[in-house]
Amino acid sequence: xxxxxxxxLLRDLAPRVLGVxxxxxxxxxxxxxxxxxEALLAAARQWPSEGVPVHPQAWLVTVASRRLVDDVRSxxxxxxxxxxxxxxxxxxxxxxxxxxxxxxxHDDTLTLLLLCCHPALSPASQIxxxxxxxxxxxxxxxxxxxxxxxxxxxxxxxxxxxxxxADGTAFRPPPSEELPERMxxxxxxxxxIFNEGYTASSGxxxxxxxxxxxxxxxxxxxxxxxxxxxxxxxxxxxxxxTDARRAARTDPGGELVxxxxxxxxxxxxxxxxxxxxxxSAALRSGPLGPYQLQAAIAAVHAExxxxxxxxxxxxxxxxxxxxxxxxxxxVALNRAVAVGMAQGPxxxxxxxxxxxxxxxxxRLEAVRAHLLEMAGEMEEARAAYRLAARRTTSLPxxxxxxxxxxxxxxxx
Amino acid sequence: MKYxxxxxxxxxxxxLFQSPEGKELMEQVDAMMAQLTASGExxxxxxxxxxxxxxxxxxxxxxxxVTDGPLAEAKEHFGGYLIVECETIDRAVxxxxxxxxxxxxxxxxxxxxxxxxxxx
Lengths: 412, 120
Description:
The complex is a heterodimer. Chain A is mostly helical. Chain A is built from 19 helices and no strands. Chain A has three domains: about 1-100; about 100-170 and about 175-225, no CATH class; about 230-235 and about 245-310, no CATH class. In chain A, helix 9 (about 180-200) runs antiparallel to helix 10 and helix 18 (about 380-390) runs antiparallel to helix 19 (about 395-405). Chain A is elongated, with a radius of gyration of 24 Å. Residues about 80-95 of chain A have low confidence and may be disordered. Chain B has a single domain, classed as Alpha-Beta Plaits (2-Layer Sandwich). Chain B has three helices and six strands. In chain B, strand 3 (about 55-60) and strand 4 form a beta hairpin. At the A-B interface, helix 6, helix 8, helix 9, helix 17 and helix 19 of A face strand 2 of B.
């Protein structure tokens, strides 16, 4: 089996092996996680040339357990923590799949996700830890995806694990009254991982764009674990419907192409169909949530045969609902766009003037610029594009906004 | 978000770091580097040679014109930088405010452009 064929298998097994290890040994999540990472690296080195073992998961558990015992012994030598070594040495070194263990794997993966998205961690740490412990990515891969040195990422991961250890969190699901809040963090972390990858997609940043695939893979996994959770389904639908535009969102030169000008024949029809099915089922079945509504809005765009045929009244109604259940300045801003498209640029500008909390934000100015351009106020539109271009800290957005401003030069 | 913390200095301020009273400043630099490394915020950093080593290059009618020394004479020059990654610019400003040379010359905190972007 080639290295490229081995990797998906390893990524799939990573959270299960970690779950087994944490359950079997009293060494704590952080040491187990290090041991699993080393076992994964060993497998990535050996399997392509020596072949995949008959029981790949058992192989990984065995190698990780041995590594864990070694690590704890050296830790023991350093810290004289005899009780930890004693507890770990009891682990079964010739692990075979044990009956009943598979049923627990699902719960373990969910518990792992919740642990990695621990509220005591910063978003950056939650993302890094989730990608390593649940996604099975190496520190080097994560560092390269986030454009930081490997040492920096290694430090973030070990600090995150130290924070969890200091918090004294055990490897078990949070109390049920905390679960909704904790699940919201998990979904947000997956959404952030997706966005990191999706917004980077311009060819040059291939390693970063893989983050979008990884976020979809992990959300798919979560959806399999919790098929009845409509917000998980909504998030998966939102990712699929957004990612369906990936090939059309930049031109061959890597420049951003606005939604209205994208080549819709380049959109991924299969991803759109899956996303539409998911969100339709979720909307039918239970209480509305922000991810479902955002997915529903993405579905309206995805199903429009052309930009002109977009059902903006439907989108406006959906933003109205979203503003009611999850109000935020960004939602108000997007709603102002929908008002502009459904009722004309003047109405949009009026809605925009009521948006608060985004005073210095480039996106507010970019929306104003588009609406002013639609209204024929070319001089003001150009000034707004230029202001938005100065404010953004994204290179492709700045180039796009400068390009729009440049097009209006001398048109007044 | 990544930020560049631009450190300005001159021969006097650099000399101060090597003087007896500068010992404490150097210790503070070491302590901050250790802290930023441990927190995973430090992405990189370099010190630049004194501006007298600069070559300024202009192209005039297709031909390069090279002069010794920096673009503009000033009391303090860009002397080095740190790159940190943190959640907010407020945190980057806090790091700059704690950096010992900020007591001797101003520091500038400037966001680094993100290669990613959202279609509009």
